[in-house]
Amino acid sequence: MKDADVETDTTRELIKALRKRIVAWQYPPQFQLVEEVLAQEFGVSRSPIRQALTYLAAEGLLERLPRRGFRVRQLQLRDVEDLYEFRLALESQVVRALANKSLDEDVLFRLQAIWQDPKALAERSVSVLAALDEQFHITLANAHGNVLIIKHLSAIN
């Protein structure tokens, strides 16, 4: 399922919210997601919930249970390794492409400003550092300009 298949802003927001909960283990592996409960919780009908769950199943985060809905998929070590290998390939392409053209000075300044003070970084939480790392890589991808790379890196993050 592609982004174009997502019909409404409501569904897109549901996808983001549910993905965030899955990644943060608010919904641990094997947790069953019930459409009726989610519809009540989010204050929406079952239709956008079903669409969001179907989208997340297509992404591999959920698995469809015949006549029982969806549950959170247990990722295997190989899944994570494959994901990092794919991310590395995308980021390597971004770096190769940027090496052949000059990086905008404003972009370079913003990237350097974040990482140049090791003492300040040491005081930050792991989650803040992870967000800064994600921002760094997405900023580079944006500077490269390949929309597909940006989309896939964002999805991986």
Write structural notes for this entry.
This protein has a three-stranded antiparallel sheet with strand order 1-3-2. The protein has eight helices and three strands. With 157 residues, it is mainly α. The model has no long low-confidence stretch (mean pLDDT 88). The two termini are 18 Å apart. A hairpin with a 3-residue loop joins β2 (62-65) and β3. The radius of gyration is 18 Å and the shape is elongated.
Tell me briefly what this model is:
It is built from eight helices and three strands.
SSE layout and pairings?
Layout: H1 9-23, E1 32-33, H2 35-42, H3 46-59, E2 62-65, E3 69-72, H4 77-99, H5 105-115, H6 118-122, H7 126-144, H8 147-156
Shape: elongated
What portion of residues is helical?
55-70%
Number of separate strands: 3
Portion in beta strands: 5-15%
Major sheet description: 3 strands, antiparallel
Computed Rg: 18 Å
Strand order of the largest sheet: 1-3-2
Instruction: Outline the low-pLDDT stretches.
Output: none
Q: How would you state the average pLDDT, rounded? A: 88
Work out the helix count: 8
Q: Tags for this entry?
A:
3-stranded antiparallel beta sheet; mainly alpha; 8 helices; 157 residues
